Each structure stands twice: as C-alpha cells, then as structure tokens.
C-alpha cells in the first residue's frame, strides 16, 4: 500500500523574491520568467508517470495570495471543479485529471512580516543595529507588528491535524481501499512552507530549519513505515510509474481480445 504524501510547492518568482524582499500580505504577480518556470515544473513533475500524480490527490490547499493561486493554475493539475477564484473552468473536460477539491486557507498564507514587510534581511538587520535592538532571526524573534514563531506554529499545527484527520489517518488505517486518493498538495510561500516542514516532523521553529525552497520549488513530506506517528521528510521521491504500467497492461489486454 502506498504511503500518503504531502507535496509543498512555493509560488513562482516575483520581483520581490528576486531581490530578497520579505513578501507577506503584499499582492505581487509572478514575473514572466516565474510563469515559464512553473509551467516547466508542471510538465516535469505533474502527470501519471511523474512525482505528483493528479489522480492520487485527495485535496489541495492554497494560500489566499494571488501569486500562489496563479502558481496552482500554471501547474495544470486539472481539477474537475473550477478554481475558487475563477468564474468558470478554463480547460476542457478532457483535461480533467483529478477529483481533488481546492481550498483557500489562511493557515498556509505567508508569515506576517508586520513592520518588516517589503524589507530585505540586510535592511532589517541594519535598522535594528541603528536602534540598538541587536541581532535578528525570524525563527526565534518573529516580526514586530506581525507574527511570532508561536503564532505561526499554532496555525500550522491546526493545518497538519486537518490533513491527518481528514485524509491520511483513514488511508493508513485500513478503512479505505488502496486505490483511494490520499496525497495532498500545498501551494504557498517560502517561509511558511519551510516552517510547515519543521512542524510536520515535530521540530520547534526556534531550532531554525536549515531548509531551502526556491521560488517554484517542490518538496515532499510523508511517513516512515506507513505509520502516521512517524512523519518524515522525503528527501527523494520516486515517480509513480505503476499507474502508467497498469494503463499499458489494460490496453494490451484489450488488444489481445
């Protein structure tokens, strides 16, 4: 039986991600290069014989920010229902590849940077030095006027519990058939997804996750030993070729009748 996975996708490149400015609540569009790279990511990693198999997705969570929603559009997952922010579906019936619902949730929006919105890390540290405030580490100190590590932990833990209770516990508890979709996709932002990975494996944010997730990057989380009590970071995930092989076998069988 396949162990469920959580795929985390950071939104594509924006002007602020290019120059390192902290982007929380500010709405920015993807750059043309950012859009091209997400399209390439979708072609490379989404499909029946790829890392993210649309038919195996049980649910999709996306940030309220437009840059994350545009990223989901460009991945071309092929949801049956129109995306929540669209008036109608923008592709044909033949392009549908998943039954997964899409949910916009504040729990996966970017870290609220408060007074540091739009600033680079170098600018923040220079400002703090001028004010005699000492060094700064977002994982330990949070952001004045924004969120603390405890604030972020609270909402991420709530989301993780939602994923496990609604989709993963049943898939690994024997109450669902093996073929039932159980994978989950998150499309969001750099800091919050790195924090999500930390909380997934029950680490505290002040420990400072030494993870990188580039704009448009994809990560995978799962479990060891098919056990919901052993969450893990999947450093290298295999492609799901069984679906393609099964389809090929079915075609071969029909051809020999």
Task: Report on the architecture of this protein.
The protein is α/β, with parallel strands linked by helices and about 260 residues long. It is about 35% helix and about 10% strand. The protein has helices at about 15-20, 30-45, 65-75, 120-130, 140, 150-170, 190-200, 240-255; strands spanning about 5-10, 55-60, 100-105, 185-190, 220-225, 230-235. Strands 3-2-4-1-5-6 form a 6-stranded mixed sheet. Helix 2 (about 30-45) packs across helix 3 and helix 6 (about 150-170) crosses helix 7. The longest helix is centred in the middle third of the chain and has 23 residues, at about 150-170. The radius of gyration is 20 Å and the shape is globular. The relative contact order is 0.21.
End-to-end CA span: 30 Å
Total count of strands: 6
- Shape category: globular
Q: Give me the Rg, rounded.
A: 20 Å
Q: What structural category characterises the helix and strand content?
A: alpha/beta
- H-E order: EHHEHEHHHEHEEH
Instruction: Give the overall average pLDDT.
Output: 92
Into which percent range does the helicity of residues fall?
25-40%
Task: Specify the biggest β-sheet.
Answer: 6 strands, mixed
Beta-strand portion reads 5-15%
Query: Strands across the major sheet, in which order?
Result: 3-2-4-1-5-6
Count of DSSP H/I helices: 8
Ranges where pLDDT stays below 50 over 5 or more residues in a row are none
What labels describe this entry?
single chain, 257 residues, alpha/beta, six-stranded mixed beta sheet, 12% strand
Summarize the structure.
The chain has 257 residues and is of the alpha/beta class.
